[in-house]
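Hey, I'm writing a tutorial for new members on how sequence and structure tokens pair up, and I'd like a real worked example in the thread rather than a made-up one. If someone can provide the structure for the chain below, I'll link this post from the tutorial.
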Amino acid sequence: MKRICTRSLVGALALVALFACASPVLAAEKTEDQLVADLNSPRAEVVTEAMLKLEKNYPTSVTALPKIKALLTDARQPVRRKAARVLGVLHADLNDAEMKAITAMLKAADQQEVMDALKSLRGLKAAHTVPEILPLLKNPVANVVRDACRTLAVLGNKDTIPSLEPLLNNPNAAVKKDAQDAIFQLKNK
């Protein structure tokens, strides 16, 4: 019995040693300069990961912000989407051309790009974009309509309420609830 226990213990220790040697060493966190350099990568996933880490670790980076703004017009959809979202989260100050790049995303064929633009606009406090958001209340995709309601709740005013009221009869319960919530928020502004 003692032999079996000793062999089991030796076997277990060998497995632990094997896994310890096989596990990759965790890479050190990249510096701000390294992440900014990654924004120039030809690989979209490297660029989007760099933006995410810059947002979390270096939200006040004066070096990264202009480069992220430039990515709003990138040909790669995931890069454009992430740039818009990061700028919204950071409440960045955008010029007219940069704001137009985000509002152009509202007309994208891909619903995820439209929703990312809406989420970005909420963070940018871009009330002047309300007229461009209103047509999305008639979008056939319920999640787009829901995000439009949420964005209008943040950016709109009491004059926006009549545009939301028809959604109170929407057969989709989630759309109806988001419209109700938006109207409630707008009435209390």
